[in-house]
Amino acid sequence: MILQNDQTFILATKNTTYVFSMLESGHLEHLYYGRRLEQPSAEIFRQKRAFEPGNSIVYDDAHKNLILEDICLEMSASGKGDIGESFLEIEHADGSVTSDFLFEKAQIMDDKKALTSLPSAYDESQKIQQLIVTLKDASYDLQLQLRYEVYEECDCIVRTAVLVNSSNETIRLHKMMSNQLDLARGTYAITSFHGAWAREMQKHTVMAGPGNYINSSFTGTSSNRSNPFTMLHEVHATEDAGMCYGFNLIYSGNHYTSVSQNAYGKTRLVSGINPRGFSFVLEPGDVFEAPEAVMTCSYEGFTKMSHNMHEFVQEHVVRGEWKKKERPILLNSWEAAYFDIKESSLLKMAKEAKNVGIELFVMDDGWFGQRNDDAHALGDWKVNTEKLPGGLGGICKKINEMGLDFGIWVEPEMVNVESDLYREHPDWTIDIPLKPHSQGRNQRLLDLTRPQVQQYIIEQMSEVFESANIKYVKWDMNRIFSDVYSRYLPAERQGEVFHRYVMGLYRIMKTLTEKFAYILFEGCAAGGNRFDLGILSFFPQIWASDDTDAIARSYIQEGYSYGYPLSAISAHVSSCPNHQTLRVTPMATRFNVAAYGVLGYECNLSDLTKEDLDAIREQIDTYKKFRSTFQYGKFYRGRSGRIHEWTCVNENKEQAVGMLLQEQVIANTQAESYQAKGLLPQGLYHFYNKKRKYDVRKFGDLINTQAPFHIKQGSLVHNVVARFVTMYGEQEDYTVTGENLMYAGVTLKDAFAGTGYSEEVRYFQDYSSRMYYMELVKE
């Protein structure tokens, strides 16, 4: 709900209130964002000042007490005394960089005016209230629209800004933010998520204090180095208590979030396009749209903030046929075959995949042109008939006849120098003419600022997607930007390359996803190098990381869960030793972690033992039973670190799945518990785990404490005994109310601690895990 009370504007969601007001000067003062107020009083929120402070700038003679440096604002600009982080920076035709945008008008609409150059949040009912406040810089005849919209049920507010050059002169935009939040009181901490390839979304928390904390990317993408999702929260906030703000951008390029504290103790957050390397020329009449920014607020800690964001993404960002549809379980060929694509081998893997219950077979890189390594043929989207004699249509038909859907890998934004495409169009790449180029993964970026290149990709991908019954596409992007230059743009517009690339990408994605609406598209950028709301506006899920190691993934997926729903997070079970870490983890743990998201497998099923194939078959049966809960349920984080504790609960709270994962054993630590979240307190639940059998060889030469004769570890006798003797694990099985499971938790059976083992003892060694199932007992 959006209300205007004289010159005060109130944005109300189900549980929060956001208030700002126009000052006599025409500036917009931010007053409040927090817990819902039924009758917010703007008067008590306003900044009071009798005299100007020393060593500061007075706005003008008519407003002697207006010090822009020491007031909370809805947007800030340079030149009039606000020396803090600015919302926008404009270089005018006369060389001045001063801007002074003052209130001109406001309009509340019952339907949203969406952006035209970038993806926008939406509502299926098309009934989203939008407030457009128009500010004007009278000195330079420019208009700035601040747009706000309210998504009441998920407690989210979306902001953006649109700059209109209504003057007769050319201006240059050096900085344009999407969101600004000034907070007058409180000490805050900042949590952001950083990493690298195979190490995405590592959580980092620092104190906000004097100075400036910046979370940004300059890779040309939203990046694995610094994800755009950021939290600002009370220092002692927990999962379940404390004020917490969450922020994100619907954007896939270089981003920027700054949190600063000024000399008067006020905290300012701004977020938007990274101003580094950015400038945009606006001729008279031109319009520039900033990406939309989403923010949410919870006084009930991180969990509620995350749930708000999850609901917003699922309901108002993801769209199309796959928005709420359960995602298929797939087998991807990459770690089984890499570039060694052979139809016979793929069909053999697909046959095993069908036998264990997998639903979709995905052929990864290596199927086109002379693509035998990463240095050749990227950009040549013609099937290699030596590898696939019947083309895509032939192998697809054979896989469909097995009862599996078929999917492929593509990387349309890239080209190898050793390719027919590059030889024909060397001017189609982002590089500096006649200068050495620094490459990544032996490839170059196609220049998506060029409409001709955009159209080429649309046509080439359309031809590929139409050539077979393709139901899934993994869209990759394996390098970051370097030597950023477009031959398509004049020298004075080279600062526009990054942003125009993203706009070109969105045009391509929008065209293809609308044309092939039935295809499930999965985003990928060397794993999580472009995991953001811009991509999710077109692709409903993203490959979270090229790292499939279960322990590494537990941190990566926990990191994503703060701002993104599980339905957006793609995760695979792979072979061991893991291809990224060489770590060996139990098959059960690899599944237990990957199940919290969109499950897939990435291993050569043809090489697995019958025991492993049986385990995978059981895993898939379990996942199918709880698939809706894993993909669309509410996710709750418990402990993290040596013990990871997760719970996922379905919408009606009739079904939940919990997990405990232990990184390393601590000697003589037998006791452990699992504490659920999100259940019906008075609901009666059947709580249980699945009874497991363990190979006696896992206990090493401890077998000799029970054997009637000595058995040498690893010997033939040891292996023979293992065929007939198995060790059974513990069984937890209770019928109990939700309040007991949530408020007290289940004290689990003792873990092995060196003094004995039986069916009443939990085998819980390094990297071990358990899933616990909770099902509402219906009378």
UniProtKB/TrEMBL annotation:
Gene3D superfamilies to which the protein is assigned, alphabetical: Aldolase class I, alpha-galactosidase from lactobacil brevis, Golgi alpha-mannosidase II
Q: Which reactions is this enzyme annotated as catalysing?
A: Hydrolysis of terminal, non-reducing alpha-D-galactose residues in alpha-D-galactosides, including galactose oligosaccharides, galactomannans and galactolipids
For the Glycosyl hydrolase family 36 C-terminal domain, which residue ranges apply? 645-773
The residues annotated as the active site are 476, 546
Q: Which residues form the Glycosyl hydrolase family 36 N-terminal domain?
A: 26-283
Q: Does the keyword Hydrolase apply?
A: yes
Whether Hydrolase counts among this entry's keywords is yes
EC assignment: 3.2.1.22
Q: Which Pfam families match?
A: Glyco_hydro_36C (PF16874), Glyco_hydro_36N (PF16875), Melibiase (PF02065)
Keywords from UniProt, A to Z, are: Glycosidase, Hydrolase
Where along this sequence does the record place binding of substrate? 197, 364-365, 441, 474-478, 524, 546
Looking at the record's lineage, which domain of life comes first? Answer: Bacteria
Which family is it part of?
Answer: Belongs to the glycosyl hydrolase.
PANTHER family attached to this UniProt entry: ALPHA-GALACTOSIDASE C-RELATED (PTHR43053:SF3), GLYCOSIDASE FAMILY 31 (PTHR43053)
Q: What is this protein called?
A: Alpha-galactosidase
Instruction: Tell me the organism.
Output: Eubacterium oxidoreducens
Q: What is the lineage of its organism?
A: Bacteria, Bacillati, Bacillota, Clostridia, Eubacteriales
